[in-house]
């Protein structure tokens, strides 16, 4: 009997990797090997219970990365930025996986990339958590790794924490504080990323060498506010905050998010139609709000 293809999933104990690992685990012809720094953590044990092989691996260790990728057909890679705002670390980890993939002859890597905004705007705009991923995308392709980049829209789940509408101080309503202007912003539920990535792994010939922008839908801030108001039965308003005012809010990452919004004002390519083809069950923002009614207002 032919042995099954192995797909290694980095970040599987987190949002994106967890979604991808769960989706691929449904394919009985594939072995899912997940990477974690702590094989005893509940998220790792849960994946093991679902049939994944769980392997201790630190993305900062070339030895670990080479070890986990040995014998694999493919890999899904997501790297983190927001835990320590460390762009250099992200780039180094991405390049480590790219080098190992090349050396070991992986046939398909799906990388959670984003645009190199700094390069695209000739230095006018810097969005470090985009720029680093853009550099890694270019590196993967430049050394000839068969790779698809998935450029993932902001999670709808951001509305459960950072973007949660805030109670107004001057009346019975809530403010949605996002410097979007009138330009639609894409979004997607975390759980819907995995099935889309699994579809990409099933059609390498269609997606190798490409960047695919994943998005369930793109809405204006007024549309986001209207859906929240209608479903939650409370008035949610666009605060009309500008990027200039947003970056002065001063919390860690405020400037970066303001710049990310400035980049979204340039309408980067996110393909709603293709995303629905890759995952026909992808949820709308309205469905997301209905399912999270109790956690959406501060
Ligand atoms: N928030 C959004 O709307 C959005 C949208 C698009 C893209 N993104 C990007 O998504 C990325 C975060 O992804 P996420 O939300 O899936 O993150 P997450 O839920 O915080 O999960 C992070 C994962 O990375 C793993 N990890 C971290 N450091 C590691 C290391 N040194 N070695 C091995 N594994 C390591 C963790 O595994 P262990 O702890 O088990 O080792 C964990 O599974 C960010 O770079 C962000 O820019 C976010």
TrEMBL record:
Gene3D superfamilies, per the entry: NAD(P)-binding Rossmann-like Domain, UDP-galactose 4-epimerase, domain 1
Native source organism of the sequence: Monodelphis domestica
Localization annotation: Cytoplasm, Perinuclear region; Nucleus
Keyword Cytoplasm: yes
Presence of the UniProt keyword Repeat in the record: no
Assembly and interaction partners: Homodimer. Interacts with ASS1. Interaction is enhanced by low NADPH/NADP(+) ratios, which results in inhibition of ASS1 activity.
Name of the protein this chain belongs to: NmrA-like family domain-containing protein 1
Taxonomy of the source species: Eukaryota, Metazoa, Chordata, Craniata, Vertebrata
Subcellular location, principal: cytoplasm
Any Pfam family: NmrA
Family: Belongs to the NmrA-type oxidoreductase family.
Record keywords, A-Z: Cytoplasm, NADP, Nucleus
Free-text function comment from the UniProt entry: Redox sensor protein. Undergoes restructuring and subcellular redistribution in response to changes in intracellular NADPH/NADP(+) levels. At low NADPH concentrations the protein is found mainly as a monomer, and binds argininosuccinate synthase (ASS1), the enzyme involved in nitric oxide synthesis. Association with ASS1 impairs its activity and reduces the production of nitric oxide, which subsecuently prevents apoptosis. Under normal NADPH concentrations, the protein is found as a dimer and hides the binding site for ASS1. The homodimer binds one molecule of NADPH.
One GO cellular component, as annotated: perinuclear region of cytoplasm
Every NmrA-like domain range: 4-266
């Amino acid at each position: 009997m032919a042995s099954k293809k192995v797909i290694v999933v980095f970040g599987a104990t987190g949002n994106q990797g967890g979604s991808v690992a769960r989706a691929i685990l449904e394919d009985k012809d594939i072995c899912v090997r997940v990477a974690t720094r702590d094989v005893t953590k509940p998220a790792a044990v849960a994946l093991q219970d679902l049939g994944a092989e769980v392997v201790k691996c630190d993305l900062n260790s070339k030895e670990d990365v080479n070890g986990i990728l040995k014998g694999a057909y493919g890999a899904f890679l997501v790297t983190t930025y927001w835990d320590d705002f460390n762009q250099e670390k992200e780039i180094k980890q991405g390049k480590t996986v790219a080098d190992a993939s090349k050396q070991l002859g992986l046939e398909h890597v799906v990388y959670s990339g984003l645009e190199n905004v700094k390069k695209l705007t000739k230095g006018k705009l810097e969005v470090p958590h985009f720029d680093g991923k853009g550099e890694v995308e270019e590196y993967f392709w430049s050394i000839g790794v068969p790779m698809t980049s998935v450029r993932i829209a902001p999670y709808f789940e951001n509305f459960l924490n950072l973007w949660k509408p805030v109670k107004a101080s001057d009346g019975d309503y809530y403010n949605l504080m996002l410097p979007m202007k009138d330009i639609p912003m894409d979004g997607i539920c975390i759980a819907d990323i995995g099935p889309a990535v699994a579809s990409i792994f099933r059609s390498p010939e269609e997606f190798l060498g490409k960047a695919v922008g994943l998005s369930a839908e793109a809405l204006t801030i007024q549309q986001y506010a209207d859906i929240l108001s209608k479903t939650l039965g409370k008035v949610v308003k666009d605060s009309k905050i500008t990027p200039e005012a947003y970056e002065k809010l001063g919390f860690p990452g405020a400037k970066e998010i303001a710049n990310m919004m400035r980049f979204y004002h340039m309408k980067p390519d996110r393909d709603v139609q293709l995303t629905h083809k890759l995952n026909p069950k992808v949820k709308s923002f309205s469905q997301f709000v209905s399912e999270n009614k109790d956690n959406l207002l501060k």
